[in-house]
Amino acid sequence: MSTSADLLEDAFGRISEGVELVLDELTPQQLAHRITPDANTIAWLVWHLLRVQDDHVSDAAGTDQVWTSAGWHKRLGLPFDASDTGYGHSRDEVGAVTTTPELLVGYARAVTAATQAYVTSLSDDDLDRVVDESWDPPVTLGVRLVSVIEDDLKHLGQAEYVKGLL
């Protein structure tokens, strides 16, 4: 019988596998390709989905983000504040996300490891804990994790679409 923790671990694992597949055999130039002048790039989409996961899950877990604690912010060398997740980025900011597939895969693996270590420790009762009271109704941990999964899968699908057009 599967537990909620098993399902969450599987979902985040599938996101990581999808990230690795979408990045497979791409060049930095392909990562930065825009299908229209204002479109998001594969590099930005993948970086953003990982940053949101890292930010939201570490906040819920009460841990440091691997972006900063494991040095990924410095390794990728992007021109943003360490707390930036890409939310609301302009066309120019999207274009500033230039990197290699290898760095994004490394960051994806680190984020996934931290996320899965956290979600496997959760009980069903933990999922009812309120993690954000600024919404009505307040957001529970379960709702927050499903929201992260949904957002990640949307951006992963967008990245897969762009790759298919290359």
Give structural notes.
The chain has 166 residues and is mainly α. It is 61% helix and 3% strand. It is built from eight helices and two strands. A two-stranded antiparallel sheet has the order 1-2. β1 (130-132) and β2 (139-140) form a beta hairpin. α1 (4-23) runs parallel beside α8. It is globular, with a radius of gyration of 16 Å. It starts with a helix and ends with a helix. The model has no long low-confidence stretch (mean pLDDT 96).
Mean pLDDT: 96
Spatial strand order of the main sheet: 1-2
* Unreliable sequence segments: none
The number of distinct β-strands equals 2
Radius of gyration: 16 Å
What does the largest sheet look like?
Answer: 2 strands, antiparallel
Structural class: mainly alpha
Percentage beta strand: under 5%
Give the helix level as a range of percent. Answer: 55-70%
- Overall shape: it is globular
Separation, N- and C-terminal Cα atoms: 42 Å
Order of helices and strands, N to C?
A: HHHHHHHEEH
Give the count of helical stretches.
8
